[in-house]
C-alpha cells in the first residue's frame, strides 16, 4: 500500500479544485479521511481475516463500489443541503475521487496481492503495469525504518511532485478566472 501521507496529500491536492464557495477545512479533511479509510481493512488481520479474502486487505474497501457508497454517505451526513444543488455533484465526485484514488495509488505499488477494484462483482485483484511506488509496511514501528524512508522518497517523486503540479495548475486556473471577472 501507499502510505497515509500519499493518500492524504492526494485528497488535499484534489480539494484545490474547488473555489472558495465550497473549499473549506471540513471539505479537505473529509477528503483525506475518504482517501485513508479504505485501509481500515488491515484491522481484519487482528480478527483472522486473510489478506486475499473479500474483507481482506485491498479487498472490498478498495473497490469502486465502496468509493461510491462512502461518497454518498459523506455527502448525506455532511452536505445534505448542498446535495440538491449542482454543488452536490461536485462534492460526490470529489469524495469518490479521493476514495478511489486509494486503490489507484495502491495498484501502483511494488507489493501486495493487487486491488479488488470491481468487488463484489469480481474479486480479481489488479495491479497497474507501471508500479513505481515502494509498498509501505503495515504498522508504525515498521514504517519508521529504512524501508519507510524508501517509501517516502518514492512517494515524493511519484505522488508529491504530481500533487504539487496539480495544486499549482488549479491555483493558476482559479486566478486567471478572478482576473477576468
UniProtKB/TrEMBL annotation:
Tree of life domain: Bacteria
Pfam family, one: YdjM
Keyword match Membrane: yes
Protein keywords: Membrane, Transmembrane, Transmembrane helix
Transmembrane regions: 27-47, 59-79, 91-118, 151-173
Entry-linked PANTHER family: INNER MEMBRANE PROTEIN YBCI-RELATED (PTHR35531)
Protein name: Inner membrane protein
Source organism of the structure: Aquimarina brevivitae
Amino acid at each position: 500500500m501507499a502510505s497515509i501521507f500519499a493518500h492524504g496529500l492526494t485528497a488535499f491536492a484534489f480539494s484545490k479544485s474547488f473555489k472558495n464557495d465550497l473549499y473549506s477545512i471540513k471539505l479537505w479533511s473529509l477528503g483525506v479521511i475518504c482517501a485513508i479509510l479504505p485501509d481500515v481493512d488491515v484491522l481484519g488481520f487482528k480478527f483472522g481475516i486473510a489478506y486475499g479474502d473479500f474483507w481482506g486487505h485491498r479487498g472490498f474497501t478498495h473497490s469502486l463500489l465502496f468509493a461510491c457508497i462512502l461518497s454518498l454517505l459523506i455527502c448525506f451526513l455532511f452536505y445534505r443541503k448542498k446535495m440538491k444543488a449542482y454543488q452536490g455533484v461536485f462534492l460526490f465526485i470529489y469524495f469518490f475521487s479521493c476514495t478511489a484514488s486509494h486503490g489507484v495509488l495502491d495498484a501502483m505499488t511494488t507489493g501486495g496481492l493487487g486491488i479488488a477494484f470491481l468487488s463484489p462483482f469480481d474479486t480479481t485483484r489488479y495491479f497497474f503495469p507501471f508500479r513505481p511506488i515502494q509498498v509501505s509496511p503495515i504498522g508504525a514501528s515498521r514504517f519508521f525504518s529504512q524501508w519507510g524512508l524508501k517509501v517516502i522518497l518514492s512517494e515524493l517523486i511519484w505522488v508529491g511532485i504530481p500533487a504539487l503540479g496539480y495544486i499549482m495548475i488549479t491555483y493558476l486556473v482559479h486566478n486567471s478566472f478572478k482576473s477576468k471577472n
